[in-house]
Amino acid sequence: MSLPPLRADEHARPQAGKRVALLLACCVMATLFAGLGAWQVQRLFWKLDLIERVEARIHADPAEAPATASAADEYRRVRLAGHFLNDRETLVQAVTELGGGFWVLTPLVRDDGTTVLVNRGFVPPDRRDPASRAAGQVEAPVAVVGLLRLTEPGGGFLRHNDPAGERWYSRDVAAIAAARGLAGPVAPYFVDADATPVPGGMPVGGLTVVRFANNHFVYALTWFALAGMCVAAAVFLRRRPAGAGGVPAP
What we know:
The protein is 33% helix and 24% strand. The protein is of the alpha+beta class. It has 2 domains: 8-51 and 214-239; 76-201, no CATH class. Strands 2-4-5-9-6 form a 5-stranded mixed barrel. It has a two-stranded antiparallel ribbon with strand order 7-8. β3 (90-96) and β4 (99-110) form a beta hairpin. α1 (8-58) runs antiparallel to α3. The longest helix has 51 residues, at 8-58. The chain starts with 7 loop residues before the first helix and ends in an 11-residue tail after the last helix. This is SURF1-like protein.
C-alpha cells in the first residue's frame, strides 16, 4: 500500500524550521562578533592611553629609584647611586640590534644598604668573560640613570631559567638575587641603564626597546566585518523568495 503524497504545507514546515534556526544562528553570531569588535575598540583606547603614559615616563626627568614598584612605574626614568658588586654579575641571554649575546646584570648597593639589579647593557659572546672588559668593571662609586623594569620571572619562551647551570633567559630578580646570595633588601625590579658610555665601551647600555603591539583597530574591523556578514546573511534568508528552493518565508 502506497503512502499519500505530502501536502505542500507539510513539506514546507521542516524547511521553514531550518530557516528560522539559520536566522537565529546568524543573529547570535552577529551579536557575538559585534561584541568582540566593541571589546577591541575598548582595548584600542586602552593601548593608546598606555603608550601615551609610557612615552611620558620615558622622557620625564629621572626620579629617585623607589623601594618597590608596580606596573604603573614600569619604564619610568630613575636615578640611583652606589657601588657595583662586579663579582656577582649575571649574564642573561639576549638578542638585540647588535646581535645575539648577553645582558650584564650587576647588583648595585645603595648608600642605604638596599640593592638594585642594574642591567648595565649588552655584551657579545666573545666579551662574556669579565676579564675581557676589565675597564668596565668599575669599583668606584657610580651614578646610574635608566628605565625601571619589572621582574621577568620563570624564563623565556619555552626556556626556563637554570640557576644551577648558569643559564638565564629572563631577568628574574628574585631568582638572580637568591643565586648570587645578595644580602639585605633587594628591590623587586631592575633598571636598564641608559647609553652613558662605560669605560672600555662594554657593556653597551641604552638598548631598551619600548614597543607595544597595537593591532586592535584591525581586529575590531575584522570582528565588525564578520558581524556585518552575519546580518547580511540573515537579511538574505528573511527576504528569500518563496520560489527559491520552494521554501516560503516564515
